[in-house]
Design a protein that fits this description.
The protein is mostly helical. It has four helices and two strands. It is elongated, with a radius of gyration of 19 Å. The two termini are 28 Å apart.
Length: 152
Amino acid sequence: MPTGASADRGRPAPGQRRPWWRVLAAVVLWAEAAGLAGLAVSALIVSRHTHGWTSDTPASQVAVSEVVVYLLMAVGVAAVGWAAMTSRGRMWTPSALLQAFALVAAWPLLKSDQPGYRIMGVLTAVVALVGAVALVQWARHEGTHGQAQPRA
């Protein structure tokens, strides 16, 4: 078994801790997954408040499918967060893409004229930037394929 990792799964050897950048990247991804799950719940509540809980209109069916899509996205982001924590460098690219998409999602919120949307845009952008900083540290120290990088 290689020293420093258990069976090449990214788990630290006994007595060692995971690097902070990996933990931070995973926590940011899990926070984004929780935000998506919250968005799904709020979309369901708004839909049911607007259309009623027993409504069978096309608009309410679209809202239910929207909730399912949000929940699937939340599960996918949470899975990437779990994999970022447990695997070596294999999850760097999906994690980086998710942070880029979060920044893209933050832009229209930041440009809104409503203060509530601007606050959500700032929160989304800050979380995405923190995740991006963690990923840059990950790439500097471990590379994008899990190998330790030589110190220059």
